Every structure is written in structure tokens, then in C-alpha cells.
């Protein structure tokens, strides 16, 4: 099991990015959250199977139809158990 933290930069707030990310994470059976940051970026924290996390990462490079992703910072960790019960929007 893996833990992935992403910071997504670009036009990612006010364009349904978090909602679309939650929909994708739920479909992939991932847990964690997506939240807006004061600097205009979005943080996504997700836990689950590495292949599912790679699919979520690929999705985040595109995001919602109105989003324009400029860059993504990513940090991976191996974990023994999940810290979250579901995927939420904060």
C-alpha cells in the first residue's frame, strides 16, 4: 500500500478539480482528500494500491475540463495501513 501527496499548480481552483478528483479516486477505491490551498494550488492526498495511485496521478495531469494544470509536485511513501476511511473534499 502507498501514500501519495500531490500539489497541483495552475488553474485548478473554481473549475471543479477537487470534485472530479474525488469522483476518480472513488472509482479507483482510493482514500484521502483534496483541498484548496491559499496560493491557488490544490493538494491531493491519496492512499491505496500503487497502480490505482498512478491512474489518479495521470488524471491529475489533466484534471477537470476547465482546469489547466501547469505542474505537479509528488511525494510517495510506502505505508502499512490506511489513515483515511474514504476520499473527501476539504
TrEMBL record:
Hydrolase is among the record's keywords: yes
Alphabetical list of Pfam families matching this protein: Acylphosphatase
Reactions it catalyzes: an acyl phosphate + H2O = a carboxylate + phosphate + H(+)
Gene3D superfamilies: 3.30.70.100
Keywords carried by this UniProt record: Hydrolase
Active site per the UniProt annotation: 18, 36
GO function term, MF aspect, one: acylphosphatase activity
Classification via SUPFAM superfamilies: Acylphosphatase/BLUF domain-like (SSF54975)
InterPro entries attached to this UniProt entry: Acylphosphatase, Acylphosphatase-like_dom, Acylphosphatase-like_dom_sf, Acylphosphatase_CS
Position of the signal peptide: none
Enzyme class: hydrolase
Residues of the Acylphosphatase-like domain: 3-90
Enzyme Commission designation: 3.6.1.7
PANTHER family given in the database record: ACYLPHOSPHATASE
Similarity annotation: Belongs to the acylphosphatase family.
Name of the protein this chain belongs to: Acylphosphatase
Organism in which the protein naturally occurs: Candidatus Magasanikbacteria bacterium RIFCSPHIGHO2_02_FULL_47_14
Amino acid at each position: 500500500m502507498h501514500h501519495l501527496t500531490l500539489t497541483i499548480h495552475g488553474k485548478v481552483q473554481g473549475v471543479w478539480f477537487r470534485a472530479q478528483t474525488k469522483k476518480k479516486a472513488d472509482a479507483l477505491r482510493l482514500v484521502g482528500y483534496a483541498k484548496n490551498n491559499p496560493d491557488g494550488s490544490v493538494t491531493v492526498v491519496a492512499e491505496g494500491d500503487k497502480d490505482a495511485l498512478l491512474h489518479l496521478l495521470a488524471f491529475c495531469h489533466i484534471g477537470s475540463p476547465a482546469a489547466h494544470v501547469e505542474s505537479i509536485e509528488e511525494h510517495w511513501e510506502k505505508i502499512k495501513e490506511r489513515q483515511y476511511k474514504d476520499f473527501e473534499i476539504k
